[in-house]
Amino acid sequence: MYLTIPELARRVGVHRSTVYRWVRSGRLKPEAVVTRRSIFLLAPSAVAEAQRIRSRNGRRKKSAIK
User: Fold this and answer.
1) pLDDT of amino acid 23
2) What's the predicted TM-score (pTM) here?
């Protein structure tokens, strides 16, 4: 069963725009694309890959501007 980007985002705990960015940058590879509506379908194994990407990136820290 394939996952949509919103489903994958919920499982990983990130915003769906983050997953779209990962797909556009090539960090995640969709298994299928429904081109009429640009729906990306990802394999269940993409959950582990997305978790790896998320843990490697961590959260960005706000810079202190004085």
Assistant:
1) 93
2) 0.74
User: How many separate domains does the chain show?
Assistant: 1
State the maximum Cα–Cα separation within the chain, in Å, rounded to a whole number. Answer: 51
- Where does the pLDDT of residue 32 fall: very low under 50, low under 70, confident under 90, or very high at 90 and above? confident
Burial 3-37 (b: 16+ CB within 10 A, else e): bbbebbbeebebeeebbbebbeeeebebeeeeeee
Q: Print the domain residue range for 29.
A: 3-56
Q: What is the CATH number of the domain that holds 21?
A: 1.10.1660.10
